[in-house]
Fold this sequence. Notes:
Helix 4 (335-343) runs antiparallel to helix 5 (373-389), helix 9 (536-546) packs parallel to helix 10 (573-587) and helix 21 (1260-1276) packs across helix 24 (1350-1366). By secondary structure, the protein is α+β, with helices and mostly antiparallel strands. The chain contains 27 helices and 86 strands.
Amino acid sequence: MPVSLGVPQGSVLDPFLFVVNISDLDMNVEVVISKFADDMLIGGMTNSSCRLYVKITDANKSRFEVPHEIIKPFEGPAASNPNYEVELSKNPFGISIRRKSTRTVLFDTSVAPLRFADQYLQITAKLPSHNIYGLGEHVHKHYRHDTNWKTWPIFTRDAFPNGEMSNLYGHHTFFMCLEGENGLAFGVFLLNSNAMEVELQPSPSITYRTIGGVLDFYIFVGSSPEDVVREYLTLVGKPKMPAYWSLGFQLSRWGYKNLSDVEATVARNRKINLPYDIQITDIDYMENKKDFTYDLGKFRNLPEFAHDLHAHGQRYIIILDPAISTQALTNGPYESYDKGTKMGVWVHESDGKTPLLGEVWPGETVFPDYTNPQCIKWWVEECANFHQTINYDGLWIDMNEVSSFKFGSVKGCVKNQWNNPPFVPKIVDRLMYAKTLCMDAQQTGGMHYDLHSLYGHSMILATEQVINRVFPGKRSIILSRSTFAGSGSYSGHWLGDNAANWNDIKWAIPGMLEFNLFGFPYIGADICGFFDNSPEELCRRWMQVGAFYPFSRNHNAENYKPQDPAFYGEDSLLVNSSKHYLNIRYTLLPYLYTLFHKANVNGDTVVRPLLHEFPTDKTTWTIDLQFLWGPALLITPVLDPSTEIVHAYVPDAVWYEYETGSAISSRKQFLDMHLPGDKLGLHVRGGFIFPTQQPANTTFFSRKNPLGLLVALDEQGKASGELFWDDGESKDTYKEGVYTAYQFTVAENVLDIIVVKRGYIDPNNLKFGEIKVFGMNNAPLSVIVKHGQNVTILLPENIIYNATTKVAYFTGLQLELGESYSVEWNSSIRIDCHPEVNANEAACKKRGCIWESSSTPSEPYCFYEKDYGYLLNTDKRIIVTERGMRAEIMRNKAYPKSYPGLTPTVQILQVDVTYLSDNMLNFKIFDPKAKRFEVPVQLNIPKGTKGDNSTRLYEVQFTNFPFGIQVKRKSTGVMIWNSQLPGLTFTDQFIQISTHLPSKYIYGFGETEHQSFKHDLNWNTWGMFAKDQPPGYKMNCYGSQPFYMGLEENFKAHGVLLLNSNAMDVTVQPYPSLTYRTIGGILDFYLVLGPNPENVVEQYTALIGRPVMPPYWSLGFQLCRYGYKNTTEIEDLYTDMKNAKIPYDVQYVDIDYMERQLDFTLDADDFQNLPDFFDKIRSEGMRTIIILDPAISGNETKPYEAFTTGIHNDVFVKWEKSTDVIWGKVWPDLPNVTVDTSKPWEYQVEHYRSYTAFPDFFRNETINWWHTAIKEYYEKTLKFDGLWIDMNEPASFVHGSVHTCHDNKLNYPPYMPALESKHSGLSHKTLCMESEHFLPDGTSVRHYDVHNLYGWSQTKPTLDSLQNITGERGIVVTRSTFPSSGQWAGHWLGDNTAAWNQLHKSIIGMMEFSLFGISYTGADICGFFNNATYEMCLRWMQLGAFYPYSRNHNGLGFTDWEYPNNKAVHQALRVG
């Protein structure tokens, strides 16, 4: 094919207009390529440099071109910097259009020959992807086209939308193509109204075959799918702004028998209070189906009926068909026909003179020629005259494809090139005039062959003039079945005569999405189906989704059962569900109306596919069973029978359930939504603000109700939205400025309600009365409203907060429409950025934090910025497996490092989440580049769970800004862990993390004395670091138990363990929230999901080890004291107890029995008879327990085997990287020294106490040494049944060592947790933190890391030795504990005091240790320190009889009550 281009092959064309003549086709053709100018007006709309015009036509003679009233010939300068390039090729001739930025070829016609004959035009273009959307009108079963050789005919036709590849009512040649994962898109529009077919091919490519006109292409090179639609609609005409009332729900049917039938329908639906604005009548109301008439018999009172509708705030729409009967009326001439004939307004036969006769509903008919100005005049007059009779409010125009029941005409059609062209596209019946007019029929605008698909459009244009005449200055509504490009500027559309089946309810969604592409946002399908009876379930599900059709109409056909909601029963599930969702629709009408405004002004879509908002997400490209209203309301309907689970996609954003406000944790994944019979999925997108209004049964009344705002916060706590408000029906309010517009934004807990235009004063004195905020993680403490200089504080009763759903309601507002306001709430969680004392503004700001005073007691003045912490590394994808998730996070470098120069910051962290079982998970946050200390406690870790998530009780997701981990209970949606709080810090010696709590009910954390079992969340901080510290308020005691149980608002429970053995504290805050601060290790959390409190303990102890099974005898009452003078004293006590017959199973000895308090010795002066006494009472059924402390004296002048063998076996804790033992002082006295107890304690320690070494129980050598020492003592000296291990925090009476400590960095870390005597450092009353231990595998660890594990490390070896030596179960009681200690020992609550409040606190302590997995627990009955009064001891014995571990124990120098003489004690013990 010779082509004269005048440019080199492959040249890129830059000229504004380029004309190419091509010969050797079927005719000479001319190609015109033009670039739209920047800011050039086309048809009254501004164009950009994103559009390209390509026209291929006959170079020698004019051909038919679509006479579009909006699209005008282009004139003007070229675009200065278009975003595309055009290239022409010679052989074969082709046009290639390429995106300049990516070099992607978008539309390349060189792949196949161009064919251009008079009645056959073909062109093929290669496309960049298979993501093709649009072309119509057909039923496309899916929104994205199948490109596997699918051919779609386009030619307007009255056909059934039954899912076959039939050409239907409209003619739309526009398609959009998504180029790939970059989200870029372009569109193609062929302005051609002739019959055609479009074939999609797998290359991928597209072939057009049309039988007339020219190839008139417009290419739109957009930046996104939504941008492409805007560009297209800027060309063909942006959508009509509907009247507000037309967005209300509508009822219609073909088949009302008479007006009484209609009235009964209206009455029963009013009775159930159905939101319902519009009643429509089909052709039944006419006399013999003749336009501009009504049946004076069956519909005699139709004018009064219209008046009644208006009196109830409702509207009335009538149907009109184009075909006009040639027959007279029953009682006289049919004047509409007579006038039309006189004015010559009909379509003519091929002779141009004889009116073409066909047949439609009234019988023989003629067809108005709406391209004839006289016809338009006639049509307007007839409609106006009829309005004088029937006060209708809008027009529904049908059968305008144009449809005729006679093929061609009553005479048939002449066989010629027009009626029988050489090529017939794959249209229904493969006959051009099937069910329509002859193609050679003549109209004023030309031959019907060219104008057929424009018939409906021309009728729409004529009807628009009717609206202007009948409703001057008002919008009204036109609803047309047949449409063309640009018809949406005047009319809405419905998807035709569907049927009541589950296919059609599905196919309606792709249809709506496509018509939004075509510029018809006012779109919907016949709800419940037009043909066939609609079963209740189908109709119920259809009413649910139909409530979110922009054009929401229930309509069915004659001879089928009624399907209006009330027909199914006043209190039916269908009625209740329909009312529910229609009320939601009416609530959201201000949002929907604003979307229509943006469509009208910008060309935006209203019903929107997910891919328009998430074009880079490949999954969205094929989603067509869900849709959006605008960018932010996600509708997920149920579209299958007997289904309550919908496998729905959740795009990559924060989403909230509309009805509850609960956030869903899933994002960018499919989710099985449980949607019972009365529910569909409805979710709002975080980051958006929805204007709302209290609903009513009609928009006439709802527009008088208070407005509101629904604020859905994104992960950064931000949101924005708009409101367009006018009188709802006047034309051109935007153009004329007669409207009010708002811009809403939320940031930093401030909602700005800004009027950007105030051109309309609503007569109803509207006010915003309520604001609802989704995603408010913390309860708003106060809310203030600012209006100019006026400040109003919202009353507490007008602030409602749901901690479970994280929804806040602000009520009682009186914010006048048209005024600007700001609403501020103080709900910022203040995570303390300066937990140390002496915080000041300068120090605070140096840390990059906020300094702000507070009127709330204890609330910190210095707190973190909201995004302080770590952020997801978006360069690395989140790894999701069946067993968990992994992510990398980076420190937000916008803020300074913590403790700079004191402890290095870890910039990059790894986060691992592992699903351990259906009710248990673990997540770790650690340094992936440097190994850090991890707790060497062996847990019972399940092997892990994998699968489809269906049985797991939880869902996990990562959030950002700042990074957080969210764990949600699936059954309730409650977030049980949500660490998206500021302040996540990870340095070598300071690690901090905070989490929201689902309620204020948390229990646990120890060991310290709590004043109540339920924690007081009013800014209380609890330190955890094992210490020889008698119980006291906020004093860290003997053990470390970093576990808590949380009770949720719905009474479900969960548990959380931080497996970290470093010194730490936790702060509970009233929001509610919790902050952990630890000074080493990693963050290693275990969560158990319960769901009830006992389940939590069961699951927790399954993880850490079940509690030890005590021997039966250990459940008996036990006696002990520190201060027995000799064996005789114990013997006398035993005799008295037996004589008094007091229940009594176990006798203890404290350190008194030892020689100078040395382990494994016996005081030969005072307790030389103890072995015989123990043997005696054991033979009488008693049991004995002795005390052992870990500290071993090293100052002995005589051989002391415990020490010498310990030295020999290298069992003692040493200085770091040294062979030197680290010496402390505990109970052992120096040999050959007389202790003067009258001296001050410090003096006694310095002068009388021996140096002591501390066994390193982590070492296997130490365990063997300990076992040998116990065994030899048992076999050679003293028989016993249990062991009581004390002072194993480990306690020392000197701080660090007798030679002090050397490493200030460890003993005085940059952050000192909230510990007793924290000013004295971590080594206070214990070892130096630089002391060195060795794990069983030889790994060196610092005491800094394992201090809290010391008692834990002693416990198991002690029980193992006891059981091995005695051959019995035995019992060990330990003072210092850590998670899992309970599987080897019981515990007592330490050196308490004889005080009344200790009875209560003992109950709290026991309940906490039951949580911790240490069931065998109790307090020293009657108190260890001080003298108990008779009454106190009496009451305590009564209580203590029910302690699991029931021991009376008191201290040196205090009163020993005479139990044998105490009858009340006898009774208490016998009951116990």
